[in-house]
From TrEMBL, chain A:
This is 2-oxoglutarate ferredoxin oxidoreductase subunit beta. It comes from the Bacteria. Keywords: Oxidoreductase. It comes from Caloranaerobacter azorensis DSM 13643. One of its GO terms (molecular function) is thiamine pyrophosphate binding.
TrEMBL record, chain B:
The keyword Iron applies. InterPro entries: 4Fe4S_Fe-S-bd, 4Fe4S_Fe_S_CS. Pfam families: Fer4_10. One of its GO terms (molecular function) is metal ion binding. The keyword Iron-sulfur applies. It comes from Caloranaerobacter azorensis H53214. Residues 6-35, 44-73 form the 4Fe-4S ferredoxin-type domain. This is 2-oxoacid:acceptor oxidoreductase. Keywords: Iron, Iron-sulfur, Metal-binding. PROSITE patterns: 4FE4S_FER_1, 4FE4S_FER_2.
UniProtKB/TrEMBL annotation, chain C:
Residues 15-222 form the Pyruvate flavodoxin/ferredoxin oxidoreductase pyrimidine binding domain. Residues 247-340 form the Pyruvate:ferredoxin oxidoreductase core domain. One of its GO terms (molecular function) is 3-methyl-2-oxobutanoate dehydrogenase (ferredoxin) activity. Signal peptide: none annotated. Its EC number is 1.2.7.7. This is 2-ketoisovalerate ferredoxin oxidoreductase.
Amino acid sequence: MAKVFERTKGLTDKPFHYCPGCTHGIIHRLVAEVLEELDVLGKAIGVAPVGCSVFAYDYFNCDMHEAAHGRAPAVATGIKRVHPDSVVFTYQGDGDLASIGTAEIIHAAHRGEKITTIFVNNAIYGMTGGQMAPTTLVGQKATTAPYGRDEKHAGRPLKVAEMLATIHGAKFVERVSVHNPANIRKAKKAIKKAFEVQLAGEGFGIVEVLSTCPTNWGLTPVEALKWLEENMIPYYPLGNFRTPEEVK
Amino acid sequence: MAKARGKVTFKEDLCKGCELCTTACPVNIVVMNKEKINIKGYHPATVIEMDKCIGCGNCATICPDVVIEVERIIEE
Amino acid sequence: MAKILMKGNEAIGAAAIKAGCKYFFGYPITPQNELPEYMSRELPKVGGVFLQAESEVAAINMVYGAAGAGARVMTSSSSPGIALKQEGISYIAGAELPCVIVNIVRGGPGLGGIQPAQSDYYQSTRGGGNGDYRTVVYAPATLQETVDLVMEAFDVADQYRIPVMVVGDGMIGQMMEPVEFKEPKKRNLPPKDWATTGTKGQRKPNIINSLFIDPKELEDHVLRLEEKYKVIKQNEVRYETYNLEDADVVVVAYGTTSRVVKNAIAKCEAEGLRVGLIRPITLWPFPDEAFEKISDKTKGILTVEMSTGQMIDDVKIAINGRKPVYFYGRTGGMVPEPDAIVAEIKKIAGGEK
């Protein structure tokens, strides 16, 4: 018998605080496994956001810095400029990155900051109780869009991966999902490549991960995976938007 | 023909009863244990008929709470 | 070392680099632009990094990251830009990190103007950000003092793990005076063993954080900060006094205004009036103790500011009702004239008002 799956050393022993079935836990684990497999835990410095994953600093087994809402890419910039040989990543939700932190993420990409961003898109504000996000789908209900998102009133949801892929300094941009084991494995590969782009000194890398929020979507965890597949993926197509030649 | 055999271990007290693992098992042996309530107050996931396990790791891959460990043996 | 003639904003940059500051994150705003421009020229020469951020908000959060990573780091701005930085300053204070923030104050509110002003006294000393916190605030009156305080600010920031502000105005930033770079007094600075440097597999992870979700934990944290602030109040108060023993009137003024006040005092003395001065050098901690030295025969206190009266609140707290407190100020970029101050002093000395 050989262990083919055990808890990665990239995670601390602390149990996740997330709601049952929330896919943040999967994404945390993937990032932690990649850091362990690349043998960079000792030089990794992570930046936690504000939102459901605010406590990310308690879960990753490396140095961590808790940032203000949306400012993780700026904080990561400060860290990376001081320690250029470290491996710096931000872990941000869609309220954090796609709303209040749009300037910070765009300009981190624009400068080609050698950092890796894990962008968790679950189309809603989770921590604050299910308010509409820039990523909320048209027609999707939220506590601040009780009749469903109205395109005429609130616009269409922001496609972050596509937007960042237009920026020269963003060298690796991919959108993945974690709604089944096959996609989870693909997501891990993308996350690994994004970190490899950083290690190669290429520039900025981001992986947008489609994620669920069973609690605020009002679905069971299993229904939420199905909802993601049937509703989010058609609007947020999966795939790679940019990869440097060296990492392909 | 080589046949993969596996064994999974659930750290039941970490389980939040989300049932995602039950959707991912190709041999349908992961179920919720309705007889039991864990320390968090959930019916934890468990495995019936462990001898059917192929050690694919799907259940552990989709588990959001790192509840599951997987071992595998390849029999020639 | 020989004195060299420098422009204020550039002298601040030179002092910071002399103090070991290797990182500067900022965003353009008048009247402090010569400082980031100087840093962009000089920091690469010492192996440092100058980075122009996309906003003041981003700049202070870069400072937050760099300070957490253990570096000596600075940012600078002017009033509306400092307002934008308050979020980051609050986080830096909460996470107990050292950094130096320079504010070359301009008139407000809003976009205001670009001329010298002191209407950021509240913003500097009351904390424009959220929560129970303090920043050490230095208000130099000459370029030599500016240079000395900037160099010391980095040590004070490191010693207490606290953001330190240096507050000037367009006058300080733009004028030229001879300066000499002198090592500040030696302090025992604790090692930065809390910094995010990567564990190298040799220690438990370091976490930079200002979140304490348990109210008791947050209260304990804030009370610990308060204890630290008490120590700073004991050790770091700075002020200059003049002729408090037998003054008929004591004037309180800081920074640029104190230079004008000194001229006014000289004029009064020539006419036989006895006028004292309290010049706070630290706006926080405020030099309460200086006010205990005011003699019983003093008729009143005159606070002079380039604002509509902000420091006067602290003056009233310090004097605690012992003497009447009067105010004279110009604002919006207007600088008080010595003769106008003399007239105010005479009113008080004559028992008018």
